[in-house]
User: Fold this.
Amino acid sequence: MTLSRRELLQIAAATAAILPNGWTRVLAQQRLTQAELLAFEPLGNVTLLHVADMHGQLMPVHFREPSSNLGVGEARGLPPHITGKDFLTRFGIPEKSAAAYALTSEDFAALAQSYGRIGGLDRLATAVKAARAQRGEEKVLFLDGGDTWQGSLAANRTRGQDMVDCFKLLKPDAMTGHWEFTYGAERVKELADSLGFPFLALNIRDTEWQEPVFPAYKMFEKGGVSIAVLGQAFPYTPVANPRWMIPTWSFGIREEDVRGTVETARREGAQLVVLLSHNGFDVDRKLASRVAGIDVILTSHTHDALPEVVRVGKTLLVASGSHGKFVSRLDLDVQDGAVKDFRYRLIPLFADVIAPDPEMAAAIARARAPFVAELAREVGRTASLLYRRGNFAGTFDDLICRAIAEERDAEIALSPGFRWGTSVLPGSAITIEDIHNATAITYPQVYRQTMTGARLKEVLEDVADNLFNPDPYYQQGGDMVRCGGLGYTIDVGKSMGSRISGLTHLKSGRPLEAAREYSVAGWASVNEGTEGPPVWELVQKYVARNKTVKVEANTSVKVIGA
Amino acid sequence: MTVRLTRRNALEASVGALAMAAFGAISPVRAAYDSADLIRKFTGGKAPTEGKVKLDLPEIAENGNTVPMTVAVESPMSEQSYVTEVLVVGDGNPNGGMATFHFTPLSGAAEANTRIRLAATQNITAIAKMNDGSFYTASKQVKVTIGGCGG
Assistant:
């Protein structure tokens, strides 16, 4: 008989001293209980529950938050652009605490041993049911910010079906999207029509007639309050992801349309206006400062997890993290069409503390059944922590870069700065599931081509401006493109075209030559007809051949002007 | 760069733009001036006032080859007070000017809707000339990116 961590916890008091390996975990977790994690003194007449950026994760995960998340312009140094110890200080979180583990990258690998995995849709179901039971369903709105259907092997193989099937059981009231669109227009429509709740997107119009593709908003009646929920899909989907997959849909921030929809909803009697947004935090912060009448913005896309609400004028901004680690609960007291008071809590779903909901656990097991043997297969091991989050590099990306450069015999590797993908602890197996959690997209081909040094600089400058343009409306979210075999210095405070310097071909140690052609391997090209093997296949080959990988922190990008 | 008024553009446009299509004309500007010179020439050296002009363009182009643009000018469009012309220029356009829209009080509304082609990131400026000889303006930067790394 093996004891789960949860069971260990429950019997901790009696047996802790005699469990040689359980001690640290028990000591760390002994103050955590489900009742306390979910405790919430109700306030007012409406409760909003929000999740976002689940990225295909039905099961609890290890997910290390970013070590670097720079803000520029007016957002410089403001939440969510604080990390590590600064984050802990800003929010008064003790070092090595459960919250420190959930919210920062500090001591991540060590604390993961103590606190275990976080998330899982079955734990989320428990939390959602508890809130609905406490408040009464007639007061609760549960909203999904999108990036739900993509990010795992099973989600990719079923083209989102596994996530849709499981999510339906949670009975969300509405969702919006981003990576959902990478299954193609037809599939998104098909799944959206099957949800039983609306897929909202006020900023998607067909390119032919500029007609809305999805409903812009929906009115709800909760706690005696008329609530308008407006959906805003990721504005730059056709730029950041393949446009050819959604050729007749046009996106954009469409600030005028947001304003117009808010006004329409108010005219129809909305006493509370909620924007369910996939803009990204800084875009929403700017939007809140320019569009009047939005009470709450449920932010997403940039994967920020903030333990407090950020206020911009009268608008409350909520950031609920990613990968199913958290659910946000925002209680509101709405009187005479205005928010009089609120209470907020970002609830971390510690998987060993919160009991899985049996109905959802069964649904997850059913969804994973066709893939479970394959998912669990050990490909190799890692001696170091594999993670993705950071503005310029992550060890999992470095592993991918090494793999595709070697397998495609290229001097330089480029890997997109995605913010999704789970972490693998040092000393663990790297499974098929781990590899797909970092690579599962519908355009996975690894291309090989030559690029001049000048072109490489152009690419880096372009991506850097998408990330560090001081005007948030010109930012696309994500992180800097990851480079294998290439070092550089970046001055994030400079303008487009002058941020990148000191480009170095790492193997020779020589400066990159503007006119020379370099062989480059990369994946996730947005161009139609890109040819090459899928990225997961190359990572798998590389890991299998090396048996145990070790990836040290990347030191080839120097950051100045931050 | 040229401006095409397609059937679709005309159909989807407002009543005002339909009127514009019927009574006005679009003429691509072909002059070897830079955009600042073009604006000076258009205004006779007067500095246009910020405001009244609404220039609806995406912040980042989804497809630089066909960027939807709507320009609308606040005006009663009466015999006493109306917009006569709107000049649109791009500072990255080798020819500077992109389009001139002509209006009369019969246009009903000073609004036009078309597609422009942008090879690179640039500032687009619209300048409206009123019948009283005053000028109003609005600008917006449109980024044209390589794309592909958000997420």
Chain A touches chain B through 42 residues (CB under 8 Å). Chain A has a mean pLDDT of 94.
